[in-house]
Amino acid sequence: MNESLLARYHNTRQASVDYCSPLAIEDYGLQAADFASPPKWHLAHTSWFFETFLLKPLLPGYQQQHPIYETLFNSYYNGIGQPYPRAQRGLLSRPTVAEVLTYRKQIDSAMQALLTAPDAEHVDAVIERTQLGIEHECQHQELFFTDLKYSLASNPIYPAYREATRHGERPVGALRWQEFGAGNVDVGHAGNAFCFDNELPRHTVYLHAFALADRLITNAEYEAFIEDGGYRRPELWMADGWSTVQEQQWGAPLYWLDGDSGAREYTLHGLIERIPDAPVCHVSGYEADAFARWSGARLPTEQEWEFAASQAEGPTGGVDSGHLHPKAACKSDGTLQQLYDSCWQWTQSAYTPYPGYKACEGAIGEYNGKFMSNQLVLRGGSCVSKAEHLRSSYRNFFYPPDRWQFSGIRLARDTG
Amino acid sequence: MNESLLARYHNTRQASVDYCSPLAIEDYGLQAADFASPPKWHLAHTSWFFETFLLKPLLPGYQQQHPIYETLFNSYYNGIGQPYPRAQRGLLSRPTVAEVLTYRKQIDSAMQALLTAPDAEHVDAVIERTQLGIEHECQHQELFFTDLKYSLASNPIYPAYREATRHGERPVGALRWQEFGAGNVDVGHAGNAFCFDNELPRHTVYLHAFALADRLITNAEYEAFIEDGGYRRPELWMADGWSTVQEQQWGAPLYWLDGDSGAREYTLHGLIERIPDAPVCHVSGYEADAFARWSGARLPTEQEWEFAASQAEGPTGGVDSGHLHPKAACKSDGTLQQLYDSCWQWTQSAYTPYPGYKACEGAIGEYNGKFMSNQLVLRGGSCVSKAEHLRSSYRNFFYPPDRWQFSGIRLARDTG
Amino acid sequence: MNESLLARYHNTRQASVDYCSPLAIEDYGLQAADFASPPKWHLAHTSWFFETFLLKPLLPGYQQQHPIYETLFNSYYNGIGQPYPRAQRGLLSRPTVAEVLTYRKQIDSAMQALLTAPDAEHVDAVIERTQLGIEHECQHQELFFTDLKYSLASNPIYPAYREATRHGERPVGALRWQEFGAGNVDVGHAGNAFCFDNELPRHTVYLHAFALADRLITNAEYEAFIEDGGYRRPELWMADGWSTVQEQQWGAPLYWLDGDSGAREYTLHGLIERIPDAPVCHVSGYEADAFARWSGARLPTEQEWEFAASQAEGPTGGVDSGHLHPKAACKSDGTLQQLYDSCWQWTQSAYTPYPGYKACEGAIGEYNGKFMSNQLVLRGGSCVSKAEHLRSSYRNFFYPPDRWQFSGIRLARDTG
Amino acid sequence: MNESLLARYHNTRQASVDYCSPLAIEDYGLQAADFASPPKWHLAHTSWFFETFLLKPLLPGYQQQHPIYETLFNSYYNGIGQPYPRAQRGLLSRPTVAEVLTYRKQIDSAMQALLTAPDAEHVDAVIERTQLGIEHECQHQELFFTDLKYSLASNPIYPAYREATRHGERPVGALRWQEFGAGNVDVGHAGNAFCFDNELPRHTVYLHAFALADRLITNAEYEAFIEDGGYRRPELWMADGWSTVQEQQWGAPLYWLDGDSGAREYTLHGLIERIPDAPVCHVSGYEADAFARWSGARLPTEQEWEFAASQAEGPTGGVDSGHLHPKAACKSDGTLQQLYDSCWQWTQSAYTPYPGYKACEGAIGEYNGKFMSNQLVLRGGSCVSKAEHLRSSYRNFFYPPDRWQFSGIRLARDTG
């Protein structure tokens, strides 16, 4: 069996536990919204994934220790049974943190057995699903950070997840545009490396001539939008976006605090003074769209983004850099920056199947395909993504009003 | 000024009133849901449209008679001011029906003046906006029927809007597929005739090889889906669709009644026995998608539909046929039938702007553009559409869970 | 059979129709809230009551004409079957107004037959239930006015039900108190005349010494409460009242409009300037209680009110006076005024059964008894009550947050 | 200063901590409903009470350590400021359990100083408020158990708070009635010992002749009600109760589980087989009322209960017995049993002020008075009450639909 897969398995599993090390036991159960799962639940669910899709079907003689975990830690796989209600994950004080860590070890030990000596007939399936399980756990590591940030933010004490590393911010240059000509191009994952099913099949699309901003929109630029009445002018918004602004009484990105203490922002490093040149983040798709309209531009399509990114440098930085908040762009040479390491970038593209898309057979086919309605594609990656988990064909997706991810704005415009 | 435009103006205006003739006064105020406006409101709002976008800005010396109508009969144009709440339109017992009809006459008389002798500098604007106002009124005529049907259906008496004309149904043949090859094609409105802004600009897209069903899915075919557990099998549904099925407890299309009296359906001609070979209608986008998945096919993209339809016969039939319920397909020669005269056809395409799309300036720009989020495109037309109002590039749009339109299912599949 | 009963039957029935005469047909279906039934529904339901509890069980050979009305016009009698949902009464455009008036005539004609020649064995039941049906219709006449007022008020046109009769307002004197000593007294209905079951049995209670205000609180006095921050000071309110103030954003009684046009109030005679010396009305039980606390007094118990009223002049005035809004008190001699003809008076007494209370057998027993939870008793009567329908032992009841009745404030306090 | 007060202070404070000893750290933050506060919050809030009403105003030089606790741990005292939202108490992972225990020690140490050497002029206030703070903490100890039970029950693991002590159940005898004659009696607290303000003033009421059941209704008797269709027969219910049954789909008391594993019940000792002769508990006021109606009896008034209990034996048993679930009655001699040690007993009395009631001045006056609307009085005590905290004049109060307290049924009936 593949040594590097085994190593990657253990590294990934260890990282999930390591990320929790700054937490108090009391933090592991926090759930401040339906969509924000508790840390402990992420630890358990990622283990459940390996147990459900690898150990039970593929490890001969495997005995599950905790039958009720099948229900408690199922996220949304109807093929496995009725999951425990998502909104109530924070109510599971038992199993305790210690019990969940024990569960993780049991799974790891069984996975070690499986990966070391898989049945000959299942080798391919074991490799494929282990890769999927690893990427799945990377996704939950990112959610761990965004969910935790959301839940901690409901506490007026504004606890820091951990102290910030020092880093100097340098001023960003004016926005510059990189241009691309019209024509047929191929998008979707190419090659044999791992990708999710939703990145396939690679296929031809026709792109009209366009230009893409070289960097993300900054806090200062977004403040100008607010000062110009951005949140009070319906003509800048999609109708559904405007309704959301009214209902939620939005007047700024999530986590912004403005008041007597000046312009501040809640981050995983605690409350900080807002940095004007850092990218604006935690904006919804509606806000991204309204900002783009206000500035006379538009959001890119996911095909435009992918085509442009496929010609640029690949992912680096992200969560492994240790700084869990996006930093200001540092170059000003017109090349595309902040593609993967700062904020996910809203596109104007609805999340729909590629031509010829096929979901996997069985419950594992529920992974991606069934979410292809009402959501928008985001591209890139963020300061809490693992760089090795990303690529230019990666399709992230959220609902237009969602704001708790590290989501920002890259502008596009028509040319020619 | 264009004689035929004036004639078309008066014909359209008269049709709105004629459609109301079977109603009791008590019916004019009915509103059984937020989205279902009362007949009286449609009569008033379509007049408001001409008053707001033509008479006030373009007829010198025009005096509005009822300042409060500006608020009461504004639908959603924030540029004109805060509209009276949509959900409360049924609470406006005043102005009475007679007063609204008087209002219509006042508007018509002023429009006659404007169209007969427009200011030289505004001739183009007058023509353009009058055309838009006419098409706008055609859209509201269709909504008049679908809204009225919805509201009458909440009455256990199940009142008929009007008696059915007799018509024989013949058995439909097996579903056949028309095939189309891959390549770049142009979609979007071509030529100088009227179209909505969302049909522009005409632009190139790349289509993969596909096939389109020659007719719509029938009631009998949909019953087979239900009998096969269609509404109880989550693997057939989008996640949001499955949630909707659970919450709304859907088990059949809207208006189906099954019980001791057999398989029945509420129609504008009253409760009838369901006709197996007639197209299924009043299904949501989620149901259309689940049915397609169950049958091993998929929904078409809007570009596929348009490209195929652009090569087929244009719109005929519809509301002017007098039969206000879709009829069974009558040919079986493999050519595309029921494109425009039966049910709108859900596509898998999100309603988004075409490349290079520009909304009009001012409040009238709110007509289409601001709805380009969270909705799906439907193509074609229905038994309550006016044929002359339709064309192959026409983009209708509703939310995936919406069911009160005459919406049905045309399948597509990948080939080659 | 009793001639006067027959006469009273016909007079009452005619009054219901007469009260509708100022309405447009469009008004008959109005329902602006769950609790506000449309005029047409009141006309039909009061007929349903006679049909259900008299004609069907007691008139041999009676044939119901419209079986579906049994469901449509049942209010809340589970013993009769599942009623059509209360919140949807406004959606019944059919039967039309003309059809409901025909239904009324059919019932009246059958009732005439029953009352003229009842079965010997059922004479008592016929008389008793006819009396109940008449009083029931009087209650619905009052609801007709309060529901209609509520529904018309949702129209920014603020339609008047009918023009006001002229009447001069004279200044009221300072509030004076009438004192009552401690001791055992009897409360509950005495004598053989009609009363509702909830007024029985007459029974002994011990009253502590108390005083009662001689007149109702005026608009001017209530304005002083508002100006003193009444709606912003939680210490003046019951906890549930304070929550309601926050949620509903109350800042004044229902129907008050304050703005550039001065202090106005919507009445059944249209928008008027608010009269400082007229009684404040359309306040909830919470507001009445908070006002009383602010003024250093309290609300009376229902026993205190009844004992005091039983020694005062009986009911006069009310709806038959033709003025459908409460007028200022006109005497200042310390005797109790405005007991029955202005506004119902909130008490601090929960609506609970009297000691030994028994509801009637069968579905008619649902009339009063099942509402004896969560409601407060109001005593007296109002400007839209029929005087002959009232008495000192009459118990009206509404939920503490209800405001759409003509409900006002009479203060009490402890003495001795 | 009073030695015994100091001892009682420390004993009570220690008990709150002791009750938590079986918990995992993860349990301290659990909140499964708005009304169910987490254990940690109870620990903090009871300390906040002493800090707010004693230390800050009455201990010279007292410095609060954690200004934000003033907001976080305020329950509902608007006079102190806007409390942190009740529904979000479970989101406060910080302060941690250890920090809250430190807070408790800081308060205890300051209270020790205050109680040892109070200012001469404040001695009375210090004693009075310390007594109130102690009784307040006793109330929260009971809520600790009922809230914890509710929150743990949302976990399909059904964790036990702690193992049960063994105890044998003996069969109960037939229900017997104790009779009381009519006449004036005095109710309300008498004497100088501590009582809450809502038990005053003692006052005269007239009681009609009545009888009271000698014991509580058992599970077996309640099962007979269910089997007789109790939850499906609207004629047995208050209208609001019936609506609640429909909306909540109630078919049994809270915590009952019936299925393949037989008749079970969740208790603080885990899932157990239901004991037929043990008192039914966790029923709402609506269910108690419906059961009483079904059995041809009624609920007692609070005055009847108090008058009867004042002649019976005082409180014993309760939480100090160590068995945290009600046990079967053990005598059958017709004397009143289970008054204080099993389940609180719903009365038919609305929670309203006694004649002449006055709340305290200032924020502390919000303790009881502002809840005197929409709630019912319960009398007695429960298996999780401290016996020394109870007395015959004690008025507990909850909303009619509430079920998470140990609330049961004692019947009454009219006699003579």
What does this entry look like structurally?
4 copies of one chain form a homotetramer. With 416 residues, chain A is an alpha+beta fold. In chain A, 31% of the residues lie in helices and 12% in strands. Chain A contains 9 helices and 12 strands. A 4-stranded mixed β-sheet of chain A has the order 10-9-8-11. In chain A, strands 1-4-12 form a 3-stranded antiparallel β-sheet, covered by helices on one side. Chain A has a 3-stranded antiparallel β-sheet with strand order 5-6-7, with no helix packed on it. In chain A, strand 5 and strand 6 (262-267) form a beta hairpin. The N and C termini of chain A lie far apart (53 Å). Chain A binds chain B through residues 76, 78-79, 184, 203-206, 208, 234-235, 237-242, 285-286, 289, 298, 348-350, 352-353, 355-356, 365-366, 370-374, 400, 414, and chain B through 76, 78-79, 184, 203-206, 208, 234-235, 237-242, 285-286, 289, 298, 348-350, 352-353, 355-356, 365-366, 370-374, 400, 414.
Defining traits:
homotetramer, 416 residues, alpha+beta, four-stranded mixed beta sheet, three-stranded antiparallel beta sheet, 9 helices, 31% helix, 12% strand
